[in-house]
Amino acid sequence: TKALKAKGQQLKGTQQLRKRKIRTTPRFKRPETYRPPRAPKYARRSLPRRNALDAFKIMQYPLTTESSMKKIEEQNTLVFIVDKRASKPLIKDAVKKLYDIQASKVNTLIRPDGLKKAYVKLSAEHDALDVANKIGII
């Protein structure tokens, strides 16, 4: 009956304690919410940006100093002046694209005059002297 049901609820109690999450840090972070992927109504620029550093822009010119000639002959290494913003992987790819040679290692430094110099060590199957002749350094 209704009376018995009410009596039971009165004894047991209708309010239950809510379990609270135990906080272990004083810092509160807002939850990460859903961010929908961008779907622009129109293009913000008419043409996509051109790559500022292509292979021709990266490799500026080979160095023909005595010390660079010595490197070509003795250490199988070519020396180039490259764009200051070029990274070692970019230089490696540019050498592969322009001269069809595989570089095993690239070392760079920025000269006191502000230009970047790259020492491109060629892999064993390529001879720096032959490549230098082909390029026109020697």
From TrEMBL:
The record's keywords, sorted A to Z, are:
Ribonucleoprotein, Ribosomal protein, RNA-binding, rRNA-binding
Where does the Large ribosomal subunit protein uL23 N-terminal domain start and stop, copy by copy? 1-49
Renumbered to this chain, region (Disordered) spans 1-42
For the biological process aspect of GO, one term held by this record is: translation
Entries under Pfam families matching the protein: Ribosomal_L23 (PF00276), Ribosomal_L23eN (PF03939)
Q: What InterPro entries does this protein's entry cite? A: Nucleotide-bd_a/b_plait_sf, Ribosomal_uL23, Ribosomal_uL23-like, Ribosomal_uL23/eL15/eS24_sf, Ribosomal_uL23_CS, Ribosomal_uL23_N
- One MF term in the entry's GO annotations: rRNA binding
- Point to the regions of Basic residues compositional bias: 17-28
Q: Is the keyword Cell membrane assigned to this protein?
A: no
Quick one: a GO cellular component term?
ribosome
Please give the SUPFAM superfamilies that the UniProt record associates with this protein.
Answer: Ribosomal proteins S24e, L23 and L15e
Q: Which HAMAP family match?
A: Ribosomal_uL23_A
What the record says about family reads: Belongs to the universal ribosomal protein uL23 family.
**PANTHER family per record:** 60S RIBOSOMAL PROTEIN L23A (PTHR11620)
What is the designated name of this protein?
Large ribosomal subunit protein uL23 N-terminal domain-containing protein
User: What organism is this sequence from?
Assistant: Macrostomum lignano
